[in-house]
Each structure stands twice: as structure tokens, then as C-alpha cells.
Design a protein that fits this description.
single chain, about 450 residues, alpha/beta, Urease, subunit C, domain 1, TIM Barrel, nine-stranded mixed sheet, eight-stranded parallel sheet
Length: about 450
């Protein structure tokens, strides 16, 4: 027997427009989208979304959920719960776990964990190293999101710093190659200078001086040069400087781009002024930089040079973060608050609702060739988010769902709240409550 849910009277945000209408979900799929849908059966669950907006669920192309091996910080189960509470219905997780996802065997083990425990849809990046080209070539491009290379700031042995290996990888795979770009030599030199001056107690506000604009630009421009030379499909993660945005184009449609870019919530929200009050809570790699950089990132996002918004969700415990500069790890939790932070930017007139959907749902689906997700369309999976844009709430310890128990947004009041999240047609989150529905499925790719 089919299971049906009808969302009535919604303001539907999809493909560049907003229209009032209804959405009929049957089992896992969107069966019908129309201005008015009536159903005969009494078994249909009806949700009246009067006055509220329905969005396609966000597809977050960069998260670190820490499993296996670092599960004191987070697990796929805990962080996928936080993700659906935050309107993220699909995620792509990174390979720098312990052990690292640099063999097909370890990749399969991760998929097995997610199949049992994920509340959201999932895929993983396969990790490249200086010596695993053989394993990279075994990966089926239809079954994973892509390849991740650390060209700076990696954990373990994942720094790919051999130019010959790098060129071989770029030349050998058709997968999307996603890169973290910061030049290690530049960073090491800057760090040594300030360590000599301050020891381990370097002031946190020097983080963007150590992990500088120069370090970012040098690395991303080199990666782009190599992609142009080899014809590789390159995606540059978490841009943090206005200068880097000059390396990208808005002259061609996303589906035809060979070189694309992402920006993360924290680089759109915080600036170097915030280190005074937030300290290590906003210590990320690449670093949060100047207000001018933030403005430049917004400009490039809105004019199409930056294609995707993501989180780079990377939780650490508060005890780990509360160390001196050299010991405090970089990264912070974001999946639960990313969508409402974007809605806050909408309230401030920085971005339209249609643009949020384009950058956080449609474009990740296009960029990674995700099948039947990222849109509100008949025949697509029903990954849907209902939001009330005028229902303020404040982030506090009681409502934070991350395993690490803190957020850089603590104390912040958001105007909008997510009221419902559907994952594959199942209501998985309802008004501050994650329901016990592990409806996440493995993402598939049309390649």
C-alpha cells in the first residue's frame, strides 16, 4: 500500500521562482507539484504549510563526520541528525578519518557504517595520497562523489606534495577532483616567524596572517593551472579570499565548467574582527580573513564565479579547541545552523531565497551529477524542508545537536526556523525534534 503525504498551501522555492502550491509525496518520491492538489483517500497525511516556504533539501558537498576513528568528536549518526535538523538532507563526507579513506576496502567500510546509521543521504570522497594512484584507478566514478586532495593542511599522510604524482592523478581520473588549497611552505615560514615571537601562545587573530591570502592564492592558482594543462575536472573547496575569486569564470553554464568553486558559511559570516570575541571557536583552515575578503566572496557567489555553498562541518571537542594557538585544532560544527544562517542573510537583503536554493541544492546536484535530488520535481526523491521565516529562536546548549555540544553561533538569535525535514519522503525532523527515522540512502551519480 502506498504511503502519501500532502503538503498544502506552501510557497515553493525552486528553479529560480517562488509559487504557491501543493506537493504530493508518494512513498519516497515527489508524485505531483501543482497549484492545488486534492486527494480522495482519508489515509493521506496532510501538512498545512500556510505562510511557510518549502525548499529542496540542501546538499552539503563538504563535511567531516569523524567516523571511523575520531568518534569522540562526532559520528555519522550524530552529525547526520544535526544535518537534517538544519535542512541538509544529503552530505558528502571527507576522507581524513582514522583510518583514512584511501583504499577501496576502507571506502566500502564507511558506506557500511552510513547504511546502518545515517539520517541523511550520504556519499564519500575518496582520498588521494602521494602513493595510492593504483587505488584511485579502482574507484567506480558512478558510486562515489569524487576525489579529495589536500594540497595543504592535511592530517596523517594525506598531503599530496609531489608534483609528478599530482600531475599523474589529474591526468588519470574523470572524477571531480576537490582540493584544499593552501601553500604549506608559505604557512610554515609564517608560523616559524610568529612562534619565535610568541612561542605556542600566538594570538588567535594572527591565524589569517599565518595562513595568508598569499598561501591560498599560490596554491589555488597552481591547481587551476594544472587542471587547465591536464583537462582535469577541478573543484576548489572553501575559498577564503577575494583575490582567489578572480581565478574563476561566470561566462559558461555550470554543467559545462571544468573548474568550479565553493564557499563556506563561516567565510560568508565571520571576519578577522571576530577573533577577539570568538578566539579558537572560529579557527578554521583556510582562515576567516578580512571584511573585504568576505565582501569579495559574496560578490563572486552572487555573480556566478562561485558555484556552491557548503559548510566544511568539522567538529572538535571544546577541550581540544580551548588550547593555545599551536595546539587548538582548526574546524568547527556548522550543519545544524548553515541554512538558517543563509536565511538570515536573506533577511538582511544579501541574497534571495531563489539564489540560496540555486547555490545550496541545485548547483551541488549539477556539479556532482547527483541523481534525482536537489530539486522539487515530479519523479525526484522527496528531500524537502519547510521553514517558517518569522519564528525567532536562539542557539543554546539545550538545542545544539552536535556531539561536540557547542556552536560558533551560540547566543545568536535567528529569525527563521526549520519546522519539517523530509528525507526520501519520510518526515525525519519536526519542530526541534529529530524523529527516529533513519531514512538516508546512498547517493547515486549520473556519470
Amino acid at each position: 500500500m502506498s504511503n502519501q503525504t500532502l503538503i498544502k498551501n506552501a510557497k515553493i522555492v525552486n528553479e529560480g521562482s517562488i509559487f504557491e502550491g501543493d506537493i504530493l509525496i508518494e512513498n519516497e518520491i515527489i508524485k505531483e507539484v501543482d497549484t492545488s492538489i486534492s486527494v480522495k483517500s482519508a489515509d493521506v497525511k496532510v501538512i498545512d504549510a500556510e505562510g511557510n516556504y518549502v525548499f529542496p533539501g540542501m546538499i552539503d558537498d563538504q563535511v567531516h563526520f569523524r567516523e571511523p576513528g575520531l568518534t569522540h568528536k562526532a559520528t555519522i549518526e550524530t552529525e547526520s541528525k544535526a544535518a537534517i535538523a538544519g535542512g541538509i538532507t544529503s552530505f558528502i563526507e571527507m576522507p581524513n578519518t582514522n583510518p583514512q579513506t584511501t583504499t577501496v576496502k576502507k571506502l566500502d567500510e564507511k558506506f557500511a557504517i552510513a547504511a546502518k546509521s545515517s539520517y541523511a543521504n550520504y556519499s564519500f570522497m575518496f582520498g588521494g595520497t602521494n602513493d595510492n594512484l593504483g587505488e584511485i584507478l579502482k574507484v567506480d566514478p558512478k558510486s562515489v562523489a569524487g576525489l579529495k586532495l589536500f594540497l595543504g593542511s592535511s592530517t596523517g599522510n594525506m598531503l599530496v606534495d609531489d608534483p609528478e604524482v599530482l600531475e599523474k592523478i589529474f591526468s588519470s581520473t574523470d572524477m571531480v577532483i576537490s582540493v584544499h588549497c593552501e601553500d604549506e611552505a608559505t604557512i610554515r615560514k609564517n608560523l616559524a616567524k610568529y612562534k619565535e615571537q610568541y612561542g605556542d601562545d600566538i594570538p588567535m587573530e594572527l591565524h589569517p596572517v599565518i595562513r595568508s591570502e598569499e598561501a591560498c592564492y599560490l596554491s589555488s592558482s597552481k591547481a587551476i593551472e594544472l587542471a587547465k594543462k591536464t583537462g582535469a575536472r577541478l573543484h576548489v573547496f572553501h575559498l577564503s579570499t577575494a583575490k582567489e575569486t578572480e581565478l574563476f569564470t561566470n561566462k559558461i553554464p555550470l554543467k559545462d565548467k571544468k573548474i568550479t568553486a565553493e564557499v563556506c558559511i563561516h567565510h560568508l559570516w565571520f571576519t578577522d574582527e571576530d577573533y577577539k570575541t570568538k578566539g579558537s571557536r572560529i579557527k578554521w583552515n583556510p582562515a576567516v580573513k578580512t571584511a573585504e575578503d568576505r565582501d569579495g566572496l559574496w560578490k563572486a557567489l552572487l555573480d556566478g564565479r562561485i558555484d556552491v555553498i557548503a559548510t566544511d562541518h568539522a567538529p572538535h571537542t571544546i577541550e581540544e579547541k580551548d588550547n593555545s594557538y599551536t595546539s587548538a585544532p582548526s574546524g568547527g560544527p556548522l550543519v545544524q545552523h548553515a541554512f538558517v544562517a543563509l536565511l538570515e542573510a536573506y533577511h538582511k537583503g544579501k541574497i534571495s531565497l531563489e539564489q540560496i536554493v540555486q547555490k545550496a541544492a541545485h548547483n551541488p546536484a549539477i556539479l556532482f551529477n547527483v541523481e534525482k535530488r536537489g530539486y522539487i520535481k515530479e519523479g525526484y526523491y522527496a528531500d524537502l524542508v519547510i521553514a517558517d521565516l518569522n519564528s525567532p529562536w536562539t542557539v543554546n546548549k539545550e538545542n545544539i545537536l552536535y556531539k561536540c555540544g557547542w556552536s560558533p553561533f551560540e547566543g545568536n538569535t535567528f529569525k527563521s526556523r526549520i519546522t519539517h525535514t523530509f528525507v526520501n519522503g519520510h518526515l525525519a525532523y519536526n519542530n526541534f525534534k529529530v524523529l527516529d527515522v533513519k531514512a538516508g540512502k546512498r547517493l547515486t551519480f549520473d556519470r
